[in-house]
Write a structure and sequence with these properties.
OB fold (Dihydrolipoamide Acetyltransferase, E2P); 4 helices; alpha+beta; 21% helix; 6-stranded mixed β-sheet; 5-stranded mixed β-sheet; globular
């Protein structure tokens, strides 16, 4: 009985850990969210210096106030179709947990929407799709009005392997 109570307690904690403020953005007509505590800033598109032999999703590096920051195109990271950048395209600068410390990375998205306060009750676990689809990078699905927003675990989206590639690029 104590094990059941502990399991329920852990599940409740996991749910409340997902509750909070999320920056929402759009890619390929879908809405996504990243926990606001991971966001350093949002900047407009700027010149990106390409890095030879980098993976296709690594766009290169930018000079942000004297600091060189690697930039990835999140569309390409997710295997989506490439899209030309426009006036709404922007770079979200995030801090993720690397092997030994935090790493600053820019991610290119189609457009930024808003900051939402999402309650634990409005977040459902990622559905199983009946296949070996890797959904570890999804924190959950936020049900808001008539839409669903995919909440990303940006540390997992930019896994240790991807971080290593990006760190070498910078």
């Amino acid at each position: 009985m104590a094990e059941l109570a502990e399991t329920i307690d852990q599940a409740g904690k996991a749910m409340s850990d997902r509750e909070g403020k999320y920056l929402t953005f759009t890619m390929a007509e879908e809405e996504y969210g990243i926990g606001i505590l991971k966001i350093k800033e949002i900047i407009g598109m700027m010149p990106i210096t390409s890095v030879p032999q980098a993976p296709a999703f690594v766009k290169g590096v930018i000079n942000l106030r004297g600091k060189v920051i690697p930039v990835i195109d999140l569309r390409l990271r997710f295997g989506m179709e490439k899209k030309e950048y426009n006036e709404r395209t922007c770079i979200i600068v995030v801090e993720i947990q690397g092997h030994s410390d935090t790493v600053t990375i820019g991610i290119v998205v189609d457009s930024v929407s808003e900051v939402l306060n999402i309650k634990a009750d409005d977040i459902e676990d990622t559905p199983t799709f009946g296949t070996r689809l890797d959904t570890d990078y999804i924190l959950g699905m936020a049900k808001l009005a008539k839409s669903v927003k995919i909440l990303l675990d940006i540390d997992r989206v930019l896994s240790a392997d991807a971080v290593a590639e990006l760190a070498q690029a910078a």
